[in-house]
Protein 1
Amino acid sequence: MEYLSTTSLASELDIPPNELFSKLKSFGWIDRQNDKWVLTDLGKQKGGLTRNNLKYGEYIVWPENISLDNSDQPKDNHKLLNATAIGKHFNVSNQRLNLILSELGWIKKDIAGWEITKLGKSLGGRQYEHDTSGGTYVLWPESILSNKNLIRVFSDSTSIVEQPKIIHTQKDDQQSSEPSIKSEPGNFREKFPATFRTKDGHMVRSRAEVIIDNALYDYKLAHAYERKLPIEEDLYSDFFIPTETVYIEYWGMENDPKYLNRKKRS
């Protein structure tokens, strides 16, 4: 996460620097001492840091995504939810929840944690940094619990609007018996339950899909399992890579005429 000096932050916000300094002082985030601006404890809680420069000496920097809404005081912090709280609401672990948010394009993996994307910011997410470890994490407003796209993930009905690229893979595992590019997902899931767990916690339907999912995980490619294709027909693909808008389909039944016909059509 980038940090900006107060002057640079004023430039980003397109306001005069003296106006920003006055605003931060009124918030209690900075104070004037001996003709010098100093960071207060409240300012530190808001993400402010002090830096030193050989030419300019000590100065204050702020996270690039800091909110200057004065209503965003500690008394409202309880309205911001972390991945654990959101995961508990949807009955998944915080690790699984972060992977889902990554699949949606709201956050992306950083060296020391999770970094918020522009889309995530537009939904009210805010990035923070752990005081001790320096790792980054994201908090979300309560409204995220009613976000339609997030809810669809848990109801297995997420749709993607961009035109897909489909990667076909051939059967190499006799254990797989599921029809690929699935239709009628409800009946399919009853007939072929997902009983194989992958490294990232996805539950898939064959050993071959475990290999594919684990490979995507090892290559650090955020991916979703079983996503609806952006077409009128109700068809699902095995894997989806949101950053590339790529659908991956594993063809696991070579001796089924109906299955082969579906493959040719796809």
Note: Residues 107 and 117 are 5 Å apart (CA to CA).
Protein 2
Amino acid sequence: MPILHSIIHRIDTSGEQGARVVPAEGELAASATLDDLLAELNTAYHAKAKDWGQFSDDTSSRLPGALANFLDGELDFTTLTRELASAIAPLIDAHLPLGGHLLIIDHHKGESRYLLMALLHQRDGFGIGDHLDIVPSPQLNLAQMTLGARIDISQWRQGNASHPYLSYTRDRGGRKLADAFAEVLGASQPVDTPQETRTLLKAFSDYVESADMPEETSREKTDALIGYASEQASRGEPMTLDELSEVVDEQQPKAFYDHIRNSDYGLSPEIPPDKRTLKAFKRFTGRAAGVSISFDSHLLGAAVEYDEENDRLIIKQVPQGLRKQLKKGE
């Protein structure tokens, strides 16, 4: 994960004049410790609830233009990040009880280039000194990342209209802060990631039902989808429908993709995965006395009802293939 540029600016709220930026004089020196921190920072960031989107065409934010100037060699990294810190300081004044250190890292991961930024706080800790005594040891609290953002520079510069190359943190209960942060970043209307993920799972359920798959095959494909989506979430990358289609069915790699494209789901080619929605998705299965039943959990209470008192399962919407078989058996 080669680091191209990195810097830390402090945003101080201890005075009576409000938040002020204490800028770094220059960039951080390369080190193994910084590399390790970046790896931990990426992991912590990907675990956070986030909004996804792109830069808006109609925005007063200076970041997209300043970032473009930096990439074109017209602006140095220190100046770019000082301007960003100055734009973030008023947010801290308005929405947060204390400041912190703004860490910004420009780096490569694989073939892609990213800009990662995070407002970090320190917490009191303990260590063991040279004389085997207990000494204070301040530590960065990566879990307390109130503000964080990640820009896939490579996708942005390529002009990929479907790729949500910009993501930023959305702390629970901090909607106003997230909206203000999005304005500073110059972000467009965020993608509704839970709804997009739910729609994708609905498309998958329809695909499984239309193909009239055996229970074991259905379960395998469900596991493949969840595994791929969870892996993309842990990497901080969106799901791509064509790649997902190949994962779901290696024998017919275009089948699921064609199912989505031939139906009116309105899904984008690339979808940021929502971890909470994925976690809740599972299939109920059972077999007894020659009867095999399998359905997705989100259908329970809608198309399928369980009458616990009488131990009955009521199917409200009989699959078309099964309906035809039942009519032929009359």
Note: Residues 233 and 273 are 6 Å apart (CA to CA).
Protein 3
Amino acid sequence: MTPQRRATCEARRLVALAELLRLKPRRTSELAERFGVSVRTVQRDLEALRDMGEGVEAVSRGRYRIPHVHHRLSAVEALAVHAAVRLLYHHSPTRSPAYRSALEKLSALLPEPAREAALRSAEALQGRPRDDRTLELVARAWFESRVLAFEYRSPGGSGRWRNKELEVYFVEVSRDNLAPYAIGFERTFHRAILTWKLSRMRHVRLLEDTYVVPPTFDPNRYLQNAWGVVGTSGGALETVRLRFAPEAAYRLEEGGYLDVTVEERCADGSLVVRLRVGTDSAGFPLEILPWVQSWGARVEVLEPEALRRRWLEEARQVAARHCDVR
């Protein structure tokens, strides 16, 4: 390891160490195991933090802390964000270490006994498979206005990995699959603002090239009528009409579906609703299909006809494959 690389690693360890000590008192042996260094190295790091004015205090023999500082989030705000981050962690195809560190920081803002329970739940996330730095690099690309280079394999394409260079304009989590996506201008081939799923990227790296986000870019306009993350980057908007059976109607009326408009309440208790959704480049409302299918037999697609045909065909395929129904 070069001296420069060693210095960078030490600096990052100091930052992470300070963050942990602000959460709760820690033993030097615990910190040594967490960072994979000796207890003596941790003791030197504690001295370095003191020299930096971090105010490291000895709580008891071998246990240290940095006094808690005021944060802007209220306890209820922290709880809301904490729940959202846990949801992202459990559903994201990749496991960024940033999720765990965010959960630990948010836990510190909760009152006891919630704080201790939340911290314990974050500790259980250590060592999950497929940790990677994609989210970190995408974030840095956005924050530092640096071009992001990666290889990408699109579903339904040739199946080959293609080199991409992206100017990141925004990061969005799809409400369809809860996966993070980067939105930005791809400059090598498409030369257009498109959406890119982080879990489909590999060999991600930052270039020295910088860029400026155009003032005309508005994430709200771009994602308008997106059911997941496909908004104005796809085809034209499409009106979808669905009929929900009585046993599902009450769940729909409970709320949580911002783009759904009730069109008719039928005498039998069923519900006809209308929504406007974005379509893919072929003009098909692909993102809405998995949500419709999740309701099983409790929903009927009324229009558009292309969606109705696709929905019925896939239902027939399921029945034919598993029930031998013709």
Note: Residues 238-323 form a domain with the Alpha-Beta Plaits fold (CATH 3.30.70).
